[in-house]
Amino acid sequence: MVVRTSSSPSATASGPGEAPAKALALLREAAPLTQCITNAVVTNFTANALLALGAAPAMCDIPGEAGMFAGIAGGVLVNLGTPTAEQRHAAREAVAAGTPWVLDPVAVGALPVRTALAHELLDARPAIIRGNASEILALAGAGAGGRGVDATDSADDAVDAARALAARTGGTVAVSGETDLIVDATRTARVPGGSVLLTKVTGGGCALGAAMAAFATVSEPFDAAIAASAVWAVASERAASGARGPGSFAVAFLDELARVQPADLDGRVEIAR
């Protein structure tokens, strides 16, 4: 059975039928402080995406400050794209603060430093794990990873791995792909759509992880992951419609993130029961 979410004003902030529309309205009202320990390649794009969405980004990744800052932030992203020694220490501090946090296990599998750290951080029980199918398979011990940051598997290939990780952490796992897959211990959702141009812009996926961290400040993890994926699908499709290529798309995508309204998200999510 597939249930499409509704943007009814009576939707609550929790439960399997929460509308992404409600989550976006709550986020815009709260403007949540979102800490990002993320990779050097995507810092600027991620911060701008959060600002456009309506959140307040903070790229605080210095040991000695990261844990302290995580204690006052609403949500935290830990992205393993460029895990320097300092960032690894900062990540350990931040996830110990007890703030809802998102793990983005970039390129885990073949690369030993980030892979070991990702497995270590799983014990801190991320609220959400967001990655492509190859990363999720590798993190679950069911694959060797993709081609660098690029997936060589589909989201449907990673269903069992995602469920295993959700069971281990007690959280939500979001698998990015042509149709995004979001699972927790008992629920499955799919968010179709979005533009392939997101794969041609550095930071499209990494910024999605940050958006999930922002949404996790106003919604429970399963709903937060759904809402972020729905917003990304709508904004990327609209940006692509007038883009001449990846450069103009990147600029238009930030504009469209700011323009997305709660009602625009109606009917974007399929929740299987």
Report on the architecture of this protein.
By secondary structure, the chain is an alpha/beta fold. The chain has one domain (19-272): UDP-N-acetylmuramoyl-L-alanine:D-glutamate ligase, CATH 3.40.1190.20. Helix content is 42%, strand content 16%. It is built from ten helices and ten strands. The protein has helices at 20-30, 43-53, 66-70, 85-95, 112-122, 133-139, 159-169, 204-215, 221-242, 246-259, and strands spanning 2-4, 33-37, 56-58, 75-79, 101-104, 128-132, 172-176, 179-183, 188-192, 270-272. It has a ten-stranded mixed beta sheet with strand order 1-10-9-8-7-6-5-4-2-3, sandwiched between helices. The radius of gyration is 17 Å and the shape is globular. 58% of the residues are buried. The model is unreliable at 1-17 (pLDDT under 50).
Essential attributes:
single chain, alpha/beta, UDP-N-acetylmuramoyl-L-alanine:D-glutamate ligase, ten-stranded mixed beta sheet, magnesium, Ribokinase-like
Backbone CA Rg: 17 Å
Which stretches are low in confidence, meaning pLDDT under 50 for 5 or more residues running?
A: 1-17
Profile the largest sheet.
10 strands, mixed
Write the CATH architecture name: 3-Layer(aba) Sandwich
- How many individual β-strands? 10
In CATH, what is the class?
Alpha Beta
Tell me the fraction of residues in β-strands, as a range. Answer: 15-25%
- The run of helices and strands is EHEHEHEHEHEHHEEEHHHE
User: Which geometry do the CA atoms define?
Assistant: globular
